[in-house]
Write a structure and sequence with these properties.
Largest sheet: 6 strands, mixed
Number of domains: 2
């Protein structure tokens, strides 16, 4: 370590170190944004496991303290963790755990963002993004075992909620509860090893309870499901997924005007979506149709459609395709949500249904 300390003492290295957190943050987040969520393979999970185990080891090392100083009744043992680290080692540990936490935050923000299909689930993504930025300024704080343990619990729970579905090929409350319980169990084990007083477990316990409540309230995105494509159309061929859409205007192409579909002589309107899931993962989905009241403009749930065929089966990079249909839907503004059955929203789309024929004509498209 003497070589590293001498290198860091050089003036040009000290100048570079000032920009290293920002460079690492932007580089890591950009890489995760490009790679994660397009398809998820074993290497993505292995990298996250490595960061998780690295954070676990360093959290245990940061728990080292002289038990007799904190607790007069504590036995005077001479174990490895019954010691006080030097300031130099504390700084090294805090830098290393900051790196592990930052890498996990970066990947989880991307994954949860791509699975977030509603404003409510996006709240958790915003919170993770805020903590991701704050992580760049918390190196000194991470020398505190209680703070590191709380952060480790949050990231561990979110990571296991992402990783366990890949192992069991299922998602749902039971698996989220297991991931939360497992994460808290690891934190409790670290606390047991540390010989700290019980108060350090209060923050991890509160975090786990709040996450379970958030999941039950559909505030947690349904990772690892990701919306790839969705469309409102008519004359859908359910074998090839070729359908007819209104030819989009310029304003619709740039996203300033909602898409539209003209019924013409066909009373049936289809809503098609493709949802990505990892290989072998299965998840039931449903479609929630909302209609905007012409008088108030507020959306009201008018139909919830699910069936045995609406089961996402992972392994297709473009996403698993499914659809719902509505006959004789009155003209107006609609919003359709593709959601995990009785759970959080994967993606949603607002569009207008009109009677008659489209002035811009119709185009054929294949939903991938």
């Amino acid at each position: 370590m003497q070589f590293v300390d001498n290198l860091r003492a050089k003036p040009f290295v000290q100048k570079i170190e000032k920009f290293f957190p920002a460079i690492a943050f932007l580089g890591g987040f950009s890489w995760d944004s490009i790679t994660l969520g397009q398809r998820i393979d074993g290497f993505d999970i292995l990298f996250l496991v490595a960061y998780y185990l690295g954070a676990l080891i360093i959290t245990i090392l940061l728990s080292a303290h002289n038990a007799a100083v904190l607790d007069e009744d504590a036995p005077k043992k001479h174990g490895f963790l019954n010691r006080e680290w030097s300031e130099a080692w504390k700084q090294r540990f805090s830098w290393a755990i900051q790196f592990c936490f930052g890498s996990m935050f970066s990947a989880l923000v991307v994954c949860y963002f791509k699975s977030s299909g509603s404003f409510t689930t996006f709240i958790l993504v915003v919170l993770l993004a805020v903590l991701l930025v704050c992580n760049e300024f918390l190196q000194k704080r991470y020398e505190s075992f209680a703070i590191s343990l709380a952060q480790f619990c949050l990231l561990g729970t979110m990571f296991l909620n992402f990783a366990i579905p890949h192992l069991v090929n299922r998602i749902g409350f039971i698996w989220f509860f297991i991931s939360t319980l497992l994460s808290f169990g690891v934190c409790a084990l670290v606390w047991k090893i540390s010989k700290y007083r019980f108060y350090v477990l209060i923050a991890p316990a509160v975090i786990c309870v709040l996450l379970i409540i958030s999941y039950m309230a559909n505030l947690v995105p349904p990772v690892p499901l990701v919306m790839k494509e969705q469309a409102a159309c008519k004359n859908l061929d359910t074998k090839t997924y070729i359908c007819e859409l209104d030819a989009p205007s310029f304003w619709q192409k740039v996203g300033l005007v909602a898409p539209s579909v003209h019924k013409g002589d066909d009373p049936m309107i289809y809503f098609v979506s493709s949802v990505y899931a990892p290989t072998d993962l299965k998840a039931e989905i449903e479609y929630r149709w909302y209609y905007a009241d012409p008088r108030t403009g507020k959306f009201k749930l008018v139909d919830k459609i699910s069936s045995e065929r609406m089961v996402v089966q992972g392994g297709r990079d473009e996403g698993y395709r499914s659809y719902s249909r509505k006959k004789n839907a009155p003209p107006g503004k609609y919003r359709v949500e593709t959601a995990y059955r009785n759970g959080a929203v994967i993606g949603s789309m607002t569009f207008d249904i009109f009677a008659g024929e489209s002035e811009t004509g119709m185009v054929q498209d294949t939903i991938q």
